[in-house]
Request: fold
Amino acid sequence: MPTPSAAGGAPGDGSPAALAHALLDTASITRAVPGRIRVAPAEPLAAGALPVAQDVLDQVTVALGLPGVEVVGEPDGLTAVELAVSRRLALRAPGAMADGEPQRAARAALAAFPGPAVTVSARDGTPLRCWAAGPEDAPAVAVVSACGMPVGLVARWLGALAPEYRVVTWESRGLFAADDGAGLGDLAGHTLDAQSEDVLAVLDGFGIAAAHALGLCGGAVVALAAAARSDRITSLSLWHGDYELGGEAPKTAHQRDVESLLAMVSRGPAQAAAMHRLMSRPSTLDALRPDIAHYLIHPYATPELLHRYGLLNGAIMSADCRRLLDAPQPALVVTSDRDTTAHPAGSKLVAARLPRAELRTMPDGDHLTAFDGGGELVALAREFLHTVTVPDRKGT
Reply:
């Protein structure tokens, strides 16, 4: 499992090894965007250096089996998505390379970040790109990430928990192109029920009978729905959940704004295309944390992705969670009063209503730091997991 610097966030040094990790880290976008996206170097390059940088990039992308990207001299005219990818790649003037170095870098990156994807079929036939880490006979943890986010956003959680647990995760149905470039495929279903069944399908795919579900942001809602659906979810931890509670808990301005956006783009391709044009402006990046912007912008990368995201995440954000609050599993509910993305009052109400929940209100950290898998949060997760996990039982 990669270290945080290899998994994403921190720019590299321009070497083939750093480029290989960064290209894999941004592959969800380069696979989904039609044609070659343009990227600008991190600093101006001499005219003669541009073709050399393009050649290095081409060699690494071919070795990784990824779509190529086009190097341009200046960032002017790039879209928000292209700028996010450019910043993650952090292209610099290439140095001397040994024979076969790009290919060796690609092989090392493929082995490390975050391991090979496995395709699992959902119960309605939708393909799901999944990952697993940790001992196969260890207690299982299903990491349910926020809707539409690439696996890299939770790579630190996988890396932190894998020494003790069999950790599995997946990317949202219908929002990620296949490794073989087959495209997004059909979106067979977008309801919360369909997405909660994906939790169980992933467990089936890895031969896991029961698991703890660790849900982040909207993933907390999906995990809660899966727990209400099946006792194969034996316990829950719900981190900074984005809950609809029928007016019994306030929402932040961000929640209300996103709900409005999702309702608009879910209406049809024309509405999604219009909003996509607006969100392609470079100023979109101003609202995104720079080290993870290439993850956060994925659902906005094309009009089709944005439309599908409106359907999927709209279903999560509009589902009344009060009907799910009788789930009997032990639960840890985590929030912070500094969360201005998902209102902490929602988590507090969920913790008060769930029969076997405990609430932890962290003194520090905002919504996005929950994804960072920092030491204090991981320690809290492990402390709770040690009280609720049991040895894995193979088969279903």
Observations:
- The chain is about 40% helix and 15% strand.
- Residues 1-10, 391-396 have pLDDT under 50 and may be disordered.
- The CA atoms of residues 271 and 323 lie 31 Å apart.
